[in-house]
Amino acid sequence: MSENEKPAEKTQERRRMVRLPTGGTAAGRSVGTKIKTAKDKRPSSQAWIKRQLTDKWSERARAEGWRSRAAFKLIEIDNRFNLIKKGSRVIDLGAAPGGWVQVCLDRGAQEVAGVDLLMIEPIPGAHLIQADFTEPGVDQQLIDALGGRPDLVLSDMAHNTIGHRQTDHLKIIALIEIAADFAIRTLKPGGNFVSKNFQGGDAGGVLARLREEFETVKYFKPESSRKDSAEVFLVALNKK
Ligand code: SAM
Q1: Which partner for 127 in 9, 64, 109, 145 could form a disulfide, CB atoms 3.0-4.6 Å apart?
Q2: Nearest ligand 1 atom to alpha carbon 71
Q3: CATH: 3.10.20.740, 3.40.50.300, 3.40.50.410, 3.40.50.150. Which one for 3-20+69-239?
């Protein structure tokens, strides 16, 4: 399978082999999940609804049975860096609604443990915990659920922004640091780490630490990440 292959082709081929139930509707939402409606008159909500309905990645996610458009970001990251191997053991931080978990299982991961503040509808083969990852003990719960140390730690954790630049910035960096610290403590030698990050954010401290602990550290912006978003992913390869 070539590195330049389009995710759609790769995905469709793999999804013919394994079809994972989403536990929800065709849109990947659980029955009863509260969704925004046009009755919500706030311009920001209306813009969100329009974007979700017209966004090509959201449409593809619905059509292909992924729970979130975020699934395509991990597909692109994995196509580029080949992180999810057959038999991999993966921990997914900030996993709801479960798109990345689906991708890991679809690509042959043996064990996947995920955590989120929000409840995640069950996904066969995954261990899903509802908790705040920053709370003491949740890290150990994940290792116990996985049954040992991971080969791959993923973090797509994002807090709800409050609109105060400095505060939001500090919260973003705090989540990256906590995820990186967990990856450094728990990954097997040779293991890999991926974390959501934001361009312009000063992740200098955590970057320096990752460069000490991993052989290679790169930034990657997937095509499926919104162009107008500062989102970028940190990819740390080969834990020393
Ligand atoms: N990767 C997911 C997927 O493929 O479906 C999407 C993740 S979404 C962008 C970010 C998630 O991070 C949210 O569901 C949010 O609840 C979660 N999150 C933020 N802070 C968290 C924390 N402290 N502990 C656990 N989850 C957290």
Answers
A1: 145
A2: 4
A3: 3.40.50.150
**pLDDT of 179-232, one tens digit each?**
999 999 999 999 999 999 988 766 778 999 999 999 999 999 999 999 888 899
Question: Which residues form the catalytic set?
Answer: 196
Which two structure tokens, joined as six digits, stand for 152? 């791959």
Question: What is the domain partition of the chain in residue ranges?
Answer: 3-20+69-239
- pTM score, whole prediction: 0.83
Whole-number Å distance, alpha carbon 117 to ligand 1 midpoint, is: 7
Contact by Cβ (8 Å): 71, 35: no
Q: How many A from CA of 2 to the centre of ligand 1?
A: 31
